[in-house]
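Bumping with the actual sequence this time:
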Amino acid sequence: MGEEVKKLTIICRCNDVTLEDIVSAVNAGIDNFEVLRKYLRIGFGPCQGRSCIVLAARIYSRLTGVKLNEALSDYKVRPPIVPVPARVLLAGG
C-alpha cells in the first residue's frame, strides 16, 4: 500500500486519525489495542467510536496478528449509547 494512500485514508473522522497514524503507532511498539485507542484518541469523538472502533481494530489485528475479538476484549461501550441532543440536557428532561 502506498504511503500517499496511508496518509489520505481517514479511519477516525472525529479525531482525524489516519491509517498512517495507526501503522506508525504499531511500528513504534504499541502492542495493545486499548493503549493504541487511547494514544490516538480513537473513539473519543462525538460518535463515540460507532464508525471507527471496529475498523481500527481490524487494522490493528492485521498488523499485529492479534485476533479481532482479543483486540476488542478490553473495549467497553460507555453510556450514552444513543447520542443525547444538547437541547434535551439543557431543558432538564
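The C-alpha cells above came from a reply further down the thread. Helices lie at 3-8, 19-27, 33-40, 53-64, 68-71, 86-91.
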